Amino acid sequence: xxxxxxxAVGATAAALxxxxxxxxxxxxxxxxxxxxxxxxxxxxxxxxxxxxxxGVEIGDILSSSGGGTTVRNVLSGDLLYxxxxxxxxxxxxxxxxEIVIVxxxxxTVADILWVAMPDSEIESIEDFAGKRIxxxxxxxxxDMTLRMSLDAAGISADDVELIAAGGIGDGLTMLExxxxxxxxxxxxxxxxxxxxxxxxxxxxxxxxxxxxxxGITTPxxxxxxPDELRALVEGxxxxxxxxxxxxxxxxxxxxEAYESDVxxxxxxxxxxxxxxxxxxxxxxxxxxxxxxxxxxxxxxxDEDVDWSGLVDESFLPADLRxx
Length: 323
Known about the structure:
Layout: H1 2-22, E1 25-30, H2 40-48, H3 50-54, E2 57-62, H4 67-76, E3 81-85, H5 86-94, E4 100-104, E5 112-116, E6 132-135, H6 141-152, E7 161-164, H7 168-176, E8 183-186, H8 189-192, E9 198-202, H9 203-206, E10 213-217, H10 219-224, H11 226-245, H12 247-258, H13 262-274, H14 285-297
Parallel strand pairs: 1-2, 1-3, 6-7
Antiparallel strand pairs: 3-10, 4-10, 5-8, 5-9
């Protein structure tokens, strides 16, 4: 009887230990979580239980002020994963930092547009010559895409007064105080302020598609927790699919996660669906190479990128992997 009792106690303890391990939560980071549109699939997946269904339990989603901060958070902490700008991931890789790209996040930069005041004489990029046109910060995505758009329109950057405004809010303040003639804006800020400004440059028509963000991890996490990473990528994919199939419900869930207005999020989510903003995770290397061309234009990089040394497609569902 004593032997049986001890066996039972041991088995129970082992079962509890296994259950505790299965329920261990993983923290992740998403650039501009709580502010910009990158976070929608994660908010949906959390709310609908898609991560757990796929096989991973997510604890906290940590925010960051930009791609570089997201990369540092992943590299310096015990975070399983982070979604960051492709530019930040490549810059870290080229500087010798060891990271692994496991999926694509935002598959276009077309959430960015430039606006002017409603009574402005500017109607399109063709009117930018001789005007004060803002971007956020030097070597940022807005710096890069503005210069690429000018080049595509046949306008020399030397013929435009380019202004580094700081953040999106700083630029809008500058616009309203007549410190600039056009400034960048992103969703969902644009959805909440469409009556205040007019769009004068929309990247979905000015440029071909350019990959914007990617999911990253460390080599150690990739080796130690491959199943959790695959489950996270799959859960996020399920979130993207839910948004496409249930945009109104997705907007409600997303608005609650971001403590935002539901109508604003409905407008923003529908705008993102129109430009096919959220990737299910697969890689488009032509779009990624196009981003590298833009980064060379603003002196972020000066060399080619060998994607085989940076991207690991094994964390993608089989149907999303390259042939």
